[in-house]
Amino acid sequence: MSRIDRGSRTIGATPAAVYDALVDRGALEAWLPPDGMRGRIERWDPRPGGGFRMVLTYLDPTGNPGKTSDATDVVDVGFAELVPAHRVVQTAVFQSDDPAYAGTMTMTWQLAAVGDGTAVTVSATGVPPGIDQAVHEEGIASSLAHLAAYLEPGG
Protein backbone atom coordinates (compact mmCIF):
# COMPACT_ATOMS: atom_id res chain seq x y z
CA MET A 1 0.00 0.00 0.00
CA SER A 2 1.40 3.41 -0.91
CA ARG A 3 1.82 6.11 1.68
CA ILE A 4 -0.80 8.81 2.17
CA ASP A 5 -0.15 11.60 4.66
CA ARG A 6 -3.36 13.16 5.97
CA GLY A 7 -4.81 15.94 8.06
CA SER A 8 -8.27 17.34 8.64
CA ARG A 9 -10.00 20.09 10.55
CA THR A 10 -13.39 21.77 10.63
CA ILE A 11 -13.00 25.50 10.09
CA GLY A 12 -15.60 28.10 11.04
CA ALA A 13 -15.86 29.65 7.59
CA THR A 14 -17.75 28.93 4.38
CA PRO A 15 -16.27 26.62 1.74
CA ALA A 16 -15.98 29.67 -0.55
CA ALA A 17 -13.93 31.56 2.06
CA VAL A 18 -11.66 28.55 2.64
CA TYR A 19 -11.19 28.10 -1.11
CA ASP A 20 -10.31 31.78 -1.48
CA ALA A 21 -7.62 31.39 1.22
CA LEU A 22 -6.17 28.46 -0.76
CA VAL A 23 -5.76 30.52 -3.93
CA ASP A 24 -4.82 33.97 -2.57
CA ARG A 25 -1.12 34.85 -2.46
CA GLY A 26 -1.23 36.96 0.71
CA ALA A 27 -3.43 34.45 2.51
CA LEU A 28 -1.11 31.54 1.69
CA GLU A 29 1.92 33.47 2.92
CA ALA A 30 0.06 34.19 6.16
CA TRP A 31 -1.28 30.75 7.07
CA LEU A 32 0.44 27.97 5.07
CA PRO A 33 3.87 27.90 6.76
CA PRO A 34 3.74 25.44 9.67
CA ASP A 35 4.88 26.35 13.18
CA GLY A 36 8.54 27.30 13.26
CA MET A 37 8.62 28.62 9.69
CA ARG A 38 7.77 31.69 7.71
CA GLY A 39 6.96 31.75 4.02
CA ARG A 40 7.40 34.02 1.05
CA ILE A 41 5.92 33.49 -2.39
CA GLU A 42 8.29 34.43 -5.21
CA ARG A 43 6.24 33.57 -8.29
CA TRP A 44 2.43 33.58 -8.56
CA ASP A 45 0.12 32.31 -11.32
CA PRO A 46 -3.26 31.33 -9.77
CA ARG A 47 -4.88 29.24 -12.51
CA PRO A 48 -5.05 25.57 -13.47
CA GLY A 49 -1.66 24.82 -14.97
CA GLY A 50 -0.14 27.79 -13.11
CA GLY A 51 1.30 27.77 -9.63
CA PHE A 52 3.76 29.41 -7.30
CA ARG A 53 7.18 29.10 -5.74
CA MET A 54 7.29 29.32 -1.97
CA VAL A 55 10.42 29.84 0.09
CA LEU A 56 9.94 28.46 3.60
CA THR A 57 12.51 29.61 6.13
CA TYR A 58 13.08 27.86 9.45
CA LEU A 59 12.96 30.37 12.33
CA ASP A 60 15.48 28.15 14.16
CA PRO A 61 17.23 25.76 11.78
CA THR A 62 19.06 23.98 14.63
CA GLY A 63 18.10 20.33 14.35
CA ASN A 64 15.86 21.10 11.34
CA PRO A 65 18.13 21.24 8.31
CA GLY A 66 16.32 22.58 5.28
CA LYS A 67 15.81 20.60 2.10
CA THR A 68 17.20 23.34 -0.15
CA SER A 69 19.75 25.03 2.13
CA ASP A 70 20.65 24.96 5.83
CA ALA A 71 17.62 27.08 6.74
CA THR A 72 15.21 26.89 3.80
CA ASP A 73 12.86 24.69 1.85
CA VAL A 74 12.05 25.96 -1.63
CA VAL A 75 9.06 24.30 -3.24
CA ASP A 76 7.57 24.78 -6.69
CA VAL A 77 3.82 24.24 -6.47
CA GLY A 78 1.55 23.71 -9.45
CA PHE A 79 -2.21 24.08 -9.48
CA ALA A 80 -3.34 20.79 -11.04
CA GLU A 81 -7.03 21.33 -10.29
CA LEU A 82 -9.07 24.25 -8.97
CA VAL A 83 -12.74 23.60 -8.22
CA PRO A 84 -14.14 26.68 -6.45
CA ALA A 85 -15.47 25.97 -2.95
CA HIS A 86 -14.78 22.22 -3.33
CA ARG A 87 -11.20 21.19 -4.08
CA VAL A 88 -7.66 22.36 -4.79
CA VAL A 89 -5.11 19.87 -6.09
CA GLN A 90 -1.47 20.93 -6.00
CA THR A 91 1.72 19.29 -7.20
CA ALA A 92 4.82 20.10 -5.19
CA VAL A 93 8.48 19.64 -6.09
CA PHE A 94 11.15 20.46 -3.52
CA GLN A 95 14.34 22.08 -4.77
CA SER A 96 17.02 19.84 -3.28
CA ASP A 97 20.25 18.10 -4.24
CA ASP A 98 19.33 15.25 -1.89
CA PRO A 99 17.61 12.40 -3.80
CA ALA A 100 15.55 11.62 -0.66
CA TYR A 101 13.48 14.74 -1.48
CA ALA A 102 13.12 14.08 -5.21
CA GLY A 103 9.81 13.54 -6.94
CA THR A 104 6.45 15.19 -7.22
CA MET A 105 4.14 15.19 -4.23
CA THR A 106 0.41 15.71 -4.80
CA MET A 107 -1.56 17.61 -2.16
CA THR A 108 -5.36 17.43 -2.37
CA TRP A 109 -7.37 19.93 -0.32
CA GLN A 110 -10.98 18.72 -0.16
CA LEU A 111 -13.68 21.09 1.18
CA ALA A 112 -17.14 20.06 2.39
CA ALA A 113 -19.80 22.20 4.03
CA VAL A 114 -20.67 21.06 7.57
CA GLY A 115 -23.10 23.13 9.63
CA ASP A 116 -21.77 26.70 9.72
CA GLY A 117 -18.28 25.67 8.67
CA THR A 118 -16.15 23.65 6.33
CA ALA A 119 -14.52 20.26 6.81
CA VAL A 120 -11.07 20.56 5.23
CA THR A 121 -9.32 17.29 4.45
CA VAL A 122 -5.77 17.26 3.14
CA SER A 123 -4.13 14.19 1.64
CA ALA A 124 -0.61 13.96 0.28
CA THR A 125 0.58 11.23 -2.07
CA GLY A 126 3.97 10.72 -3.68
CA VAL A 127 5.62 12.17 -0.58
CA PRO A 128 9.42 12.03 -0.95
CA PRO A 129 10.89 9.36 1.33
CA GLY A 130 13.13 11.91 3.09
CA ILE A 131 10.04 13.51 4.64
CA ASP A 132 9.05 11.74 7.86
CA GLN A 133 5.33 10.92 7.83
CA ALA A 134 4.65 11.92 11.44
CA VAL A 135 6.52 15.22 11.02
CA HIS A 136 4.68 15.91 7.75
CA GLU A 137 1.27 15.20 9.28
CA GLU A 138 2.19 17.46 12.21
CA GLY A 139 3.04 20.20 9.70
CA ILE A 140 -0.28 19.70 7.88
CA ALA A 141 -2.14 19.97 11.20
CA SER A 142 -0.20 23.13 12.04
CA SER A 143 -1.06 24.71 8.68
CA LEU A 144 -4.73 23.81 9.16
CA ALA A 145 -4.68 25.43 12.62
CA HIS A 146 -3.18 28.57 11.07
CA LEU A 147 -5.86 28.51 8.35
CA ALA A 148 -8.56 28.33 11.03
CA ALA A 149 -6.99 31.22 12.95
CA TYR A 150 -6.74 33.22 9.72
CA LEU A 151 -10.40 32.72 8.77
CA GLU A 152 -12.37 32.38 11.97
CA PRO A 153 -13.81 35.43 13.72
CA GLY A 154 -11.48 36.62 16.46
CA GLY A 155 -8.65 34.57 14.91
TrEMBL record:
This is SRPBCC family protein. InterPro entries: ASHA1/2-like_C, START-like_dom_sf. Belongs to the AHA1 family. Gene3D superfamilies: 3.30.530.20. It comes from the Bacteria. Residues 13-152 form the Activator of Hsp90 ATPase homologue 1/2-like C-terminal domain. CDD domains: SRPBCC_CalC_Aha1-like_2.
